[in-house]
Amino acid sequence: MHPFHRSRPVRIPLRWKIAALAAATACLVAAAVGVLVHVWTAHDIRQRAEAEAFNTMYSAMDVYRRTGTLLDGAELDPPGLPAALRSPADSDRHTAYDAREDDYGEGPTVWAAQRTGGPGSRVLVYRVNMAPRLHDLDQLDVTMAVASLIALAVATPLAIYGAGLLGRRLGRVSETAGRISGGDLDARTGPTKGRDEVSEIAATVDLMADSLGQRLRTERQFTADVAHELRTPVGGLLAAADLLPPGETEDLLRARVRDLRGLVEDLLEISRLDAGAELPARARVPLGAVVSEAVVRTGLDTEVVVAQGAGTVETDPRRLERIVCNLVLNAHRHGDAPVQVTVEGRTVVVRDHGPGFPQALLLRGPRRFQTGATERGSGHGLGLTIALGQAWLLGGELHLANAPDGGAVATLRLPV
């Protein structure tokens, strides 16, 4: 687990998004197909009914004119005849659709009508009841709806399964990127199945990791080489400063040489942490006593509160002291008094009452040679970086935050 954490927003898995999109698409397609089938079928049913009424009326008129009798279903001037067919202007055959129910409770009707002779003669009518046909249309609609639901029930699990495969592949890439972001430069996605965009993303992430790892290794090697090369001349400068006659110049030069030596030692420590050459020497020690002694060694006015729950921990006391000293020095250098150190259980909290950590530091974590805003004071930006590396080496977590009422808060949690 990386020692510096940022909260992540709640995310919706990709598989559910794809499944929802597939289900919505299937519903839209089913609705569109259902509407088209309904409209086309209804139009076809009406055309067939009109053709049946028209042809039957033609046969009935031929029989009536020859024999004077009516075929079954044919009528003369029925009372329910639509007004458009009651007084046709000529003797041509006409059809009409009537959506009303007749006196017998029969539903929509298609009428065909023609005058038996010239103007003023009676109107011969034949009608086709549409109720059975519309009932069949309703049954077709129900069948289409059931078929759409069955198709949706089958398509959604398949979409979830396919999206799950894609999500797992993307998850591997995301996990690899997260491990690289957490400092694991050897993390790789490796070959992935398929020849698509996901494979290209995975290959790009691996290529980026190779390039980033090479650059970081070059940078770390350069830092280590510079620190090693500076160690000898800095030691010579410190020895030469001891030969100067006492005075203000000697004190100023000695202070600057000590600062330079401290910077070189910090760089060497960072290079060893980066290279993984450090190993903790664990021992069972009283946490409160180790923290109190580390605060005293800083020589700074710091309030230490050891709760009753602070007991014995198994850790490397030298590295623990290094973390506490760096956090206390950082609080005094960049914050304001009072600086408080609280020990409770396996947790050590260092708090100041200054302007707090910069937002950039809280978002991206400590960066070497970056101290945040200029008003937070001087320094090389290595103290928090070293504390973070030492906490990770001890298996602990170092969380940086700002208190609601102002001030920076650094919380060190040691592992069980």
UniProtKB/TrEMBL annotation:
<dbReference type="InterPro" id="IPR050428">
    <property type="entry name" value="TCS_sensor_his_kinase"/>
</dbReference>
<dbReference type="InterPro" id="IPR003661">
    <property type="entry name" value="HisK_dim/P_dom"/>
</dbReference>
<dbReference type="Pfam" id="PF02518">
    <property type="entry name" value="HATPase_c"/>
</dbReference>
<keyword id="KW-0812">Transmembrane</keyword>
<feature type="domain" description="HAMP">
    <location>
        <begin position="164"/>
        <end position="217"/>
    </location>
</feature>
<dbReference type="GO" id="GO:0005886">
    <property type="term" value="C:plasma membrane"/>
</dbReference>
<keyword id="KW-0472">Membrane</keyword>
<dbReference type="GO" id="GO:0000155">
    <property type="term" value="F:phosphorelay sensor kinase activity"/>
</dbReference>
<dbReference type="InterPro" id="IPR003594">
    <property type="entry name" value="HATPase_dom"/>
</dbReference>
<dbReference type="InterPro" id="IPR004358">
    <property type="entry name" value="Sig_transdc_His_kin-like_C"/>
</dbReference>
<dbReference type="InterPro" id="IPR005467">
    <property type="entry name" value="His_kinase_dom"/>
</dbReference>
<feature type="transmembrane region" description="Helical">
    <location>
        <begin position="142"/>
        <end position="166"/>
    </location>
</feature>
<keyword id="KW-0808">Transferase</keyword>
<keyword id="KW-0418">Kinase</keyword>
<dbReference type="Pfam" id="PF00672">
    <property type="entry name" value="HAMP"/>
</dbReference>
<dbReference type="InterPro" id="IPR036097">
    <property type="entry name" value="HisK_dim/P_sf"/>
</dbReference>
<keyword id="KW-0902">Two-component regulatory system</keyword>
<dbReference type="InterPro" id="IPR036890">
    <property type="entry name" value="HATPase_C_sf"/>
</dbReference>
<dbReference type="InterPro" id="IPR003660">
    <property type="entry name" value="HAMP_dom"/>
</dbReference>
<dbReference type="Pfam" id="PF00512">
    <property type="entry name" value="HisKA"/>
</dbReference>
<keyword id="KW-0597">Phosphoprotein</keyword>
<protein>
    <recommendedName>
        <fullName>histidine kinase</fullName>
        <ecNumber>2.7.13.3</ecNumber>
    </recommendedName>
</protein>
<keyword id="KW-1133">Transmembrane helix</keyword>
<feature type="domain" description="Histidine kinase">
    <location>
        <begin position="225"/>
        <end position="416"/>
    </location>
</feature>
